[in-house]
Amino acid sequence: MTAVASSRSNPLMWAGLLAVAALVVLLSFTSDDDAAIGGRADPNGTGREGLRALRLLVEESGGTTQSLSVPDDDIEAALLATRAYDDVLAELNDEPGQTEANYAPLLAWVDRGGVLVTGVDVPGGPTMTGDLTDDEDAIRRGQCDIDQLDGVMSLRAELWTPIAIAPADRSCFGDGETAFVVRRPRGDGAVVRVGSLDVFFNRFLDDADNAALAARLFGLGDGASLAFLTGPETGPLFGDGPVNEDGEPVGAGESTLLDLLHPGVIPMFVGLAGAAVLFALARGRRLGSPVEETVPIELPSSGHVEAVGRLYAKVEEPRARTAERLREDFRSGASRRFGLPPDAPLDDLVPLIEPDRDRRPQTRERLTDAPLENDEALIELARDLNERRRALAGRDVTDQIATQESTT
Question: What global pTM score does this model have?
Fold first, then answer.
């Protein structure tokens, strides 16, 4: 049998590995950012559906922003961009939930004079009606009786649904029956429902009059305060666990661990795998003359069988030793069962094991280290002791122990 000697390191191999490594680093740091980085409706999100542009608009106009579960009375306006207060698990299971209770502190703030702007259903607030519109053409002002929106002439959103108008509501960008913006008075405050949150997202905030709509609804200017609502501090029906940046219970979404990876990670691993393959190919290329190697000595498979047989032959009286172990194990277990020491005499142990006086001699013989004639006798001994052990396990030995002690 022969093998080949390995060649010295090839400079071309190392050059190729360095090139692959450089490509991996380039892919890792130059990959495009995720379009939804930061999460949907995240006040710090820079993706298409983030709210960072709105937050900067508020702050640059002299206002302040906060991310809160429930706004306090110092907050004038709040934006609820997700179903953070909904009892999602109860809805999935078609069970009564505590959505109303979750919304109660927020609606109490509205009753005290707060303005809640939202794109989701709020108990007692305006509701959507009609078909979903996916036309990105400008949304015209139409009928409008909200004085606050004077000068806002057109809006733009990718997907939106009309909001039904109730008799006490004020509306804008509609036809008198439905509208894109509906304001419903509640206590000293109001709930404002918009047909789509697209108008506030980074992607659309600078389109048409979307920024003007935000400025008017939130009353932007010096001293203005806007709260981005994150929902309850804990998810009520998810084990009182934490909520994510969207205000939804952690673990309730459909994202997987792969969604957490940066887009450049997968190309990086692909590059590393390519580098590993290249390295294996380069190192696997052997040059040089054959080298003689010593052929290993082959042992016959029967050697193991013969060795085991010789060891077995050295054991003196294996049947007697096995029977002795079986009896010792049974006597030890029975002694503990009756509260006796493991090495209790048979005179004390046999009456407890066998209540029938006529069968006690047979029991004593079973537990005495008497020689066995053949393997069948050993098997019969093991079976008998096992049955006796099961019988003892199913007996209540308390009364029997008391009787034995009184007799003694």
Answer: 0.51
